[in-house]
Specification:
The protein is an all-alpha fold and about 140 residues long. The protein is built from 9 helices and no strands. It has one domain (about 25-135): Cytochrome Bc1 Complex, Chain D, domain 2, CATH 1.10.760.
Length: about 140
């Protein structure tokens, strides 16, 4: 007889996560649910296919065009999050994974800023990134 606990346990955990209040969820939880599948819980990713979030977003946020770039990356721009939640997740990612490289005068992302830029999804994010960082 097979043990059903792993399936039942996983279903209970998933249902608990999905029942979190959509607009009030902690940005860290939203990151886990929407980003960590590729970028991993610690933000290390799997370069070069999945970019690391360690220091990299902070560097980009300080460059001309980099702030908007972080919003327009396809996985970000097309995330299943409303503008306010997406702003909160981007701010969390910068704080959690790029505290040393995020500019000291960085203003947190806002829902209005996300709304202005996310519709212009990047067609070639690698090329755009290279233009921003000068690679």
């Amino acid at each position: 007889m097979r043990c059903l606990f792993p399936r039942v346990g996983a279903a209970l955990i998933l249902s608990g996560l999905l029942s979190l209040p959509a607009h009030g969820e902690d940005p860290k939880i939203a990151y886990w649910l929407h980003c960590a599948g590729c970028h991993l819980l610690d933000g290390t990713g799997a370069p070069p296919e999945v970019p690391t979030l360690i220091d990299e977003p902070g560097v980009l946020a300080g460059r001309p065009g980099g702030r908007e770039y972080l919003i327009r990356i396809p996985g970000v721009a097309q995330a299943g999050l409303d503008d306010a939640r997406l702003a909160a997740v981007l701010n969390y990612m910068l704080e959690a994974f790029s505290p040393e490289t995020t500019p000291g005068d960085f203003d947190p992302y806002t829902a209005a800023e996300i709304a202005r830029h996310r519709a212009a999804v990047l067609v070639d994010p690698l090329r755009t990134r290279a233009e921003i960082v000068g690679d």
